[in-house]
Amino acid sequence: MTTATPVQRKVTRPRADALRNRERIVTAAREMFVEFGPDVPLDEIARRAGVGNATLYRNFPDRDALVREVLVSVMDRTSEAAEQALTETGDAFAALERFVHVSADERISALCPMISSTFDQFHPDLEAARKRVEQLIDEVMERARRSGQLRTDVGVGDVMVAVAQLSRPPAGTGCLSADRFVHRHLQLFLDGLRAPARSVLPGTAATMEDLRQP
């Protein structure tokens, strides 16, 4: 009796050009969501990405799938910035400052209006990306706190609220024209995080869980 040899199945990997097209779509979508808001036509996103409509819909069957991918990609890049901050062996507060400025450039606050009541905010991909970025930001802040440079009465939520608010243009102003003020105002905020604190903050340190409460 002979034993049948298992058939080796070849794993199909996406072609390099297919991956590039997907990346172009996500990049174009992020740019256009920031510039024009959540209702920008998907056909316009495909045009900016330099791909056909069929290519966009093959990768993202509906708007929610594209929004989810954009959010995950933004959080992943924010996580990478936090990881880079943790590898720096110099001034812990300076590493926190650089991380905050890089995070602001991602403009995640401009994506918030796209999360409609029907959007699955608890999709496993989003949950995994969210947990990763929150843990890494907490580590960056804790290192600055242990060095005695970061005031002890602020939390991850405080930092992320400030980044979101300060990187969002005021109502009635041009989205892109306000960009030149973002890093100036972020630095003013960061100076207020330094220890020793010059004043007592009302309330308690904000956590990311606090921000998720209705």
UniProtKB/TrEMBL annotation:
It comes from the Bacteria. Residues 19-78 form the HTH tetR-type domain. Residues 41-60 bind DNA. InterPro entries: Homeodomain-like_sf, HTH-type_TetR-like_transc_reg, HTH_TetR, Tet_transcr_reg_TetR-rel_C_sf, TetR_SbtR-like_C. It holds the Pfam family TetR_C_43. PROSITE patterns: HTH_TETR_2. This is TetR/AcrR family transcriptional regulator. It comes from Streptomyces hokutonensis. The lineage of its organism: Bacteria, Bacillati, Actinomycetota, Actinomycetes, Kitasatosporales.
